[in-house]
Amino acid sequence: MRYKPLPIGVDDFKKLIEHGYYYVDKTAFIRDLIDRKGEVNLFTRPRRFGKTLNMSMLRYFLEDMHTIKGEPMDNRGLFEGLNIMQAGESYLSHMGAYPVITLTLKAGRQSTFASAYRQITMQIGMEFERHSYVLDSDLPDEMKERYKSILSGHADMDIFKGSLQFLSHCLSYYYGKRAVLLIDEYDVPLENAFLCGFYDEMIDFIRALFETVLKTNAGLEFAVISGCLRISKESIFTGLNNLEVISILNDSYHEYFGFTDCEVRKLCDDFALSEKYETVKAWYNGYLFGNTNVYNPWSVVRYIKDLQANENCYPVAYWANTSSNSIVRELIELADESVKAEIEQLIDGGVIEKPVHEDITYAEVYESMDNLWNFMFFTGYFRKVSERICENDIRYLTFRIPNREVRYIFYTKVSAWFQTKIKQRDMSRLHNALLQKDVETFEAELNDIMLETISSMDEHENYYHGLVAGLLTGIKGYITKSNRESGKGRCDLFVKPVSRRKEAFIIEFKVTKKLGELEAKADEALEQIEERHYEKELLDDNYSVISRYGIAFCGKECMVRLAAQ
Questions:
Q1: 311 shares a domain with 334
Q2: What is residue 237's predicted lDDT score, i.e. its pLDDT?
């Protein structure tokens, strides 16, 4: 059976429909937008949850295409068979009824303000080029000259700050009706500017660009803006009283970003993968937008596509490298013991409660560790479990990790960031204690390091194995080898000197969930080394002096034993 292609990375609605890609119908979004009649609508959702595709869909539905490039055009065919076509004439009357300005600020992710500004103004210039047919009208000469200066890219910054407002006036003059404005990825240049050190310059430009077009603009019918995070009204939407913010906490529009359970069931059925539904659910479901459970659409589609090639493929964290996490990493590196404990609690399936506010600014992000949780919640790392309002009207949310995909991201990426931090410490005391067989110091150093790691209640031996192997790598004159075949099995670690005249070390690990069993488990590790003759490989390799360590772990505690010579 031949299936429709899956739209991996296809976010242009027209291309998706005309090329026959599989489409999860979100066109009822148009109906709700018309019903609610918001003048300026800001949708904030995590990255890769369908914002760009929805913005493209809006453009193709709303835009009057008849005079663009002088060719009669009609997008009605793109929507045939979709939900919006059954909504009634009161909604279809909006099809092709407006001039549309569409702009993405994704290109504003640059290393300097000059290059970011240049990329954004190039995007604005491209939209002016798309509507350059207005120059063939009776537009006043002064407006034509200003239009051409923006089109050429030679206009100064003050002209570009007012460019979107000016374009809306030009289109309103040409069509005799107000324009619709669609801005996608509005917060990308702001986040990037904050990380790269030119936040004040960028926010001044974006604030002016938005304020002129969104505030008391007679040429604007309505605007839809999308992004990942709400930027404080005071810093970017100054004086804008007609702004409606629709975040993941709002009940409206909840089913239009991400896939619902019914949509995922149908997707699995349509690709003859109904037996994979429970796996898809465990890995990619669990987000709560308003009161609706939704799946991560990017990861669901990627996994279904991989299953087409190999029905036994294992799900992976496709979302791991798509979400913006630079700020999260920097904040985690500042985490104290209580934050580390809370992260471990989340990894283990627990919940935490934190104050949440929707109007965080990047400039405030380091003022409180609570901003870490705030930022991560709105960017898709957590699911709301419950909420309450305390006496001083502060909103508190209880949240948890939504699914296995995000848990895996925590367990690998977040843990790895802590490991990187650990590797920056001086390991000479640990290394010397190992080589000098100073068991007390070796154990104390390991326990100190364990307190700096992120661990889990279901930690397995391979976690501790990898941790210690990494800590002991780099001892001058020694080679650390893991899981080598030797004797009657596989020992955990060899620490071998380059010189055969020096002492070599065998290390075996054990794990227990009971603190009182540490000593017995460490002794058991030593017994295993003897019983399985792990020293055979070293003896065969001409090492004659060999010491044996048994190390037992329980959570963040360890005990070290050295075999008697």
A1: no
A2: 80
State the Cα–Cα distance between residues 259 and 461, nearest whole angstrom: 37
Strand partners, 549: 507, 562
Q: What Rg value do the Cα atoms of the chain yield, rounded?
A: 30
pLDDT digit string, tens, across residues 58-85: 999 999 976 555 555 678 999 999 999 9
Q: Which tokens belong to 489?
A: 């099995």
* β-strand partners of 553: 511, 558
Interval 374-406: pLDDT, tens:
888 988 999 999 999 987 888 999 999 999 999
Q: For residue 258, which amino acid is it?
A: G
Check whether 441 has a pLDDT greater than 60: yes
Based on the domain organization, do 107 and 233 belong to the same domain? yes
Domain boundary among 297, 316, 335: 316
Maximum CA extent, the chain? 99
Nearest to residue 467, comparing CAs of 400, 437, 422? 422
SS3 100: strand
DSSP string, 158-175: HHHHTHHHHHHHHHHHHH
CA angle in degrees (0–180, nearest 5) for 510-516-518: 25
Cβ pair 405, 317 in contact under 8 A: yes
Q: What are phi and psi of 486, to 5 degrees?
A: -160, 135
The CATH number given to whatever domain includes residue 212 is 3.40.50
509 shares its domain with 448: yes
Beta partners for residue 396, in sequence order: 355, 388
My answer on whether 353 and 465 are in the same domain is no
Output the pLDDT for position 364.
73
8 Å CB contact between 504 and 540:
no
**Is pLDDT above 90 for 191?**
no
Regarding whether 97 and 192 lie in a shared domain, the answer is yes
Cα dihedral 517, 341, 346, 465 sign: negative
Domain shared by 164 and 283, yes or no: no
Q: What is the pairing mode between strands 100-104 and 179-184?
A: parallel
Residues 460-510: tens digit of each pLDDT = 788 888 889 989 998 999 999 987 655 567 789 999 999 999 999 999 999
Mutual angle of helices 163-175 and 113-130, in 10-degree steps: 0
Phi, psi for residue 347 in degrees, rounded to 5: -60, -35
Range of the domain at 388: 326-413
Which residues have CB under 8 Å from 540's CB, separation 6+? none
DSSP string, 293-317: EEB-HHHHHHHHHHHHH-TTPPP--
pLDDT of residue 132: 94
Residue 418: pLDDT band with limits 50, 70, 90: confident
At 415 the pLDDT is 72
Domain annotation covers residue 298: yes
Residue 321 lies in a domain: no
Residues whose CB falls within 8 Å of the CB of residue 164, separated by 6 or more in sequence, listed in order? 101, 103, 124, 181, 209, 212, 213
Domain co-membership, 431 together with 390:
no
Amino acid at residue number 76: R
